[in-house]
Specification:
The complex is a heterodimer of chains A (181) and B (215). With 181 residues, chain A is mainly alpha-helical. In chain A, helix 6 packs parallel to helix 8. The longest helix of chain A is centred in the C-terminal third of the chain and has 23 residues. Chain A is elongated, with a radius of gyration of 21 Å. With 215 residues, chain B is mainly alpha-helical. In chain B, the strands form two sheets. Chain B has a three-stranded antiparallel sheet, covered by helices on one side.
């Protein structure tokens, strides 16, 4: 998912997901705000993606001991999915997670949740149409437009910027905005 | 939590991508991150010391987990550091190719800082936003670029990609730049004066920021 140096991939990985430890681990207490102590089995911690995904896939020993289990983050909880099904354009994705789609993609790589994939796909399609509309028809400082644009996550924001930039560049190239350089 | 300094660095990198100029080099954050990596490495050596090379992860899952977490933190810090420097060096290279004279601009910024702070020690007046390594990098990159351009004398590889509309253009002088020679005689460039000159003569100075084109 993204190259090693890609800044957006790095920021995606920094987002947190809930994790439950299955073992007692000495010395990792700081993860649970308990510096210098241990983590007991069954503790729930919020870990960033770069740590949790790699820990969750570890299987050690003859009994295939699992280190920790990953849970779905709150941003793709059933409550949020219901809201997305009802009105995808009104949900503030940025508040749930700054790189919402990338986070969901990374987490869904490890789980089998067809329904979530479908809901997110539909959401993206509807929001993308709305973004294209806003990009090509500037509506000034209308309240609704501002709220929608503020609620876009990072990927949608880049989509908006490139759509807006490209339509402007096209108009300029066609000679409609006579810019005497 | 490990990785916080690295996260701040990546946020700076993200901001840098959106800006036109290069913000200051975050020496403190970089130093903190490398210090963290060194500490993590020490921790790993301490954990593995009693085993003396014959560590079996399957028999000691808890210890293996600690070692793994430390290792992942180190890898994360390394990735963030590399990405931060990569973004900055990409930006510097881009500025080189667009013809800006970066070292000259940095020196001017330094001189301005020194001038305003009368009585300050000379070392405190370092206003450059590049680290010393970056300055060295940009110097060598500039030399390499000049050598590459030198192979074709009739075309300027770092010049403007836009075809000129007029032969002569109006320019305003932004900074004092001494005297330049044109086909029609010498022109003295003093700040805020305007001239009607041949585009080809002044293109270089516009790219370097001494002149401003008037439409």
């Amino acid at each position: 998912m993204g190259s090693y140096y890609d800044i957006d991939a790095i920021l995606t990985d920094a987002q947190k997901v809930p994790c439950t430890f299955d073992l007692d681990i000495p010395g990792l207490g700081y993860l649970d705000e308990n510096a210098g102590g241990d983590i007991k089995a069954g503790t729930r911690v919020s870990l960033p993606l770069w740590l949790s995904t790699l820990l969750a896939v570890q299987r050690l020993g003859p009994s295939s001991q699992q280190l920790c289990t990953l849970d779905l983050p709150a941003s793709i909880s059933p409550r949020v999915l219901a809201a997305l099904k009802a009105g995808p354009k009104t949900v503030d994705l940025r508040q749930l997670a700054s790189h919402y789609y990338e986070l969901a993609a990374r987490v869904l790589e490890l789980f089998e949740e067809e329904e979530i994939v479908d809901v997110l796909g539909e959401t993206f399609k509807e929001r993308a149409a709305e973004i294209a509309d806003h990009a090509h028809n500037p509506r000034g400082a209308l309240g609704e437009a501002q709220d929608f644009l503020r609620g876009l996550d990072e990927m949608e924001r880049q989509l908006f910027r490139s759509a807006h930039g490209s339509s402007n560049a096209m108009r300029e190239w066609m000679g409609e905005t006579k810019k005497k350089r | 939590m490990y990785g916080d300094h690295a996260f701040k660095l990546v946020q700076h990198a993200k901001r840098t991508q959106a800006l036109v100029h290069l913000p200051h080099y975050q020496t403190e954050l970089v130093r903190e991150t490398t210090r963290e990596v060194r500490d993590l490495d020490k921790d790993v050596s301490n954990i593995l010391a009693p085993f003396e090379g014959s560590f079996n992860p399957s028999s000691e899952p808890a210890t293996a987990c600690s070692v793994l977490v430390n290792h992942l933190c180190m890898r994360r810090n390394k990735r963030c550091l590399l990405a931060y420097h990569r973004v900055r060096s990409d930006k510097l290279e881009e500025m080189c190719w667009s013809g800006k004279d970066i070292l000259d601009q940095e020196q001017q910024a330094g001189r301005q800082g020194n001038g305003e702070g009368s009585g300050m020690a000379s070392e405190a007046g370092n206003q450059s936003s590049l680290s010393p390594e970056e300055e060295e990098y940009i110097r060598q990159y500039g030399d390499m670029l000049a050598a590459y351009k030198g192979q074709w004398t009739d075309i300027d590889l770092t010049g403007s990609l836009e075809p000129p509309r007029d032969l002569f253009i109006d320019v305003r002088v932004l900074k004092d730049a001494g005297e330049i020679q044109t086909e029609y005689g010498a022109i003295t460039l003093t700040k805020n004066s305007q001239f009607f000159v041949r585009q080809g003569d002044v293109e270089r100075l516009i790219a370097q920021g001494y002149l401003q084109k008037l439409s």
